[in-house]
């Protein structure tokens, strides 16, 4: 019976006690106990214990650990782990954290760490270095790597050229499947991962691509030319990464060739980088709609965060003063009828929320290219209709409640009329503001909010106080 | 000189005129002229012209075209294209559009269209059918396909089992690389795309996986066992798709094995489906933060949209009444000093916006697992500090402007004090509300908004009117 009752798991004697510390709990959150143990090992400069803790960690786990540590512990972790620290982990942390860490490290440490990386990861790290140090690190690299990295770095920021991997396999079209497979078996220095091989002419122009499964399914004597896709998915190196991401998303790609202006193959871009781009983009949209700068991260300092949030609050303050100016026009009405002062924030807040609903849908649809010239009018009509309908419904609800609350059916009628007008204007503002900003090349996610709420506030206060003044002859 | 001046491109005589109609313009938006031409062809029931227009279209382009057409034209396009219509296009449209189209089609048409699809696409379409029709379609399929699809459909909605592809390659560990490659060359009925082959025991348990590039690089006599990764990336079929997506994102995967409760291989999940899941998830977060249901689509009807947006506006109305109740407490103060009525919306609006900023950051960080128990206190302290700092800054600005506007330094002082308190509470509300909702298993993206704004409204009105009442002895 003892075995049945004893539910405590026995410690396995052949495993060290630290093994029991899971990096993540069941919900996927970082385990605070693990973090404490790692911080302890760093503070005590116990390289062995730290090594044991992070044994077998994936670069993304190392990255998460770095972010969770206190800022001064981060470079010390890297120094303690020495050669066994995988620099790819630095590509998994926020840019601000990466910059901070790199500032603390010796250029020779960085050069050594960068050497073992795929070119796209190396570029991500080099991007985060100040010009001078970047040059120093590049100097310490072997010439071939240096040239390849320098070429990537010469492309504009956030372009396909920066995200691409310069390691790829490219064969001539007259090779056979057998030759190609033998080549891959014999070459030690292949890219770490690849999903297609490219076909080029002697001048390096991209002719085609063969997916690996296609290659595997073909018989040895077949030539590459016969099985290659001669319209391979390609992007220009100067193309913005978001455009590349849309392409991957639209055509379900895992890999695409990157070519220069002359159509010469210069690299390959893989889906894992695209997943990161899509996440960054969604992140940026979410933050911007909430009035936060797209690059704000949890790791930012208080002062930086305060300053970065200031402009939006300032813009909001200006529009709030505009709205207050509208209220002041009706100062006398308010003095005669204080109920108006009590109810007016309700009208404005309903308008603000309805406007935000429409704006959210419009901004997102613009970002995903679902909303465009072809359907703009249809969507505007739909939003206006939704606005009027919700206006009618809430006019009845709010009107009734206000009538009862202030024992005056007339005040119910006035707030109801005001609500219909504000919800219609909220719908129109919510769609026209993003469309207009987009037309003029301004990112609607960043700047729609203050415009929409100032429209709804002004229309809300003006229509409610205006209708009341006329109705009650105040 | 004529050649230089003549900039009009000559029409190529060997291409039909319709070729000139691009599906998308340079900005990636659907070309309205193309849409009009397609709609014309459908209205005139000219199958040939339509066929010519969509010749060589990718499934995603066909999908975009379907969405852009008027609802009654959509099923007619499918009927006109007949066998040449690729049913995979239906997986690229909004769920509501898919359901509408499928309702209009004969079950035999659907059954035939589904037969040629990968199992994951077929499941996506079958999911959108009402139970009865789903059974009818399944009945018309060959037994093997029916069983595989039925098994996927038996897994819960939005699980890995629903998203997986049931076509995969699985070999025993004792096979050689040569045997495996020969098998793939000789088997006609392989999955359309795959990036790894799986290794199973006779009972179907997953033992390992071999990436295709690894297979290609190995010599023919090497056994699979020697080169396989014996801890392959795997997910349970019942796992939620969002958890699977986080895994792909974290470990940069392109493919993962799907196993049942007993560890038997039942399918493979590929990165292109994961990209869609990530997009859906980001979309849902953005919409929910803006007070819109996550499944709202541009293609929804006016009535559906109005009803789906109602609850959020209603919740907002209730909190607005609460705030109005707070104002009413200070009715007498307002009667004596109408300036308070003019300025109070500014305080509330500043609080609302500051709260939204913090909330946006918190909700997003919770969704991406960047915010958790390990760092919650650090983030709370940071947000509180940012709130107090911005409170001080705006107290000075707003206080000065209000003093000048109302010729009263005292009113400036009062609004400044109120602002500090409301920005601090906004920061605390913005972080505690999402954290608390998350703790209780409620999605913070859906419900944080109304809570946060009701906190900021109530604190805003109460502190401004309260401080004013005490200060001016109203």
UniProtKB/TrEMBL annotation, chains A, B:
Highest rank taxon of the organism:
Bacteria
Under SMART domains, the record lists: CBS (SM00116), MgtE_N (SM00924)
Q: Which UniProt keywords apply?
A: CBS domain, Cell membrane, Magnesium, Membrane, Metal-binding, Transmembrane, Transmembrane helix, Transport
- Where do transmembrane segments lie in this chain? 310-330, 342-363, 384-405, 411-437, 449-472
The keyword GTP-binding is assigned to this record = no
Domain CBS per the UniProt entry, residue ranges:
228-284
The residue ranges flagged as biased composition, category Basic and acidic residues, are: 1-15
Write out the annotated subcellular location: Cell membrane; Membrane
Membrane topology designation = Multi-pass membrane protein
- According to the record, the residues making up region (Disordered) are 1-26
Self-association and partners? Homodimer.
Entry-linked NCBIfam families: mgtE (TIGR00400)
Task: Give the similarity note.
Answer: Belongs to the SLC41A transporter family.
Instruction: Report the protein name in the record.
Output: Magnesium transporter MgtE
Lineage of the native species?
A: Bacteria, Pseudomonadati, Pseudomonadota, Alphaproteobacteria, Hyphomicrobiales
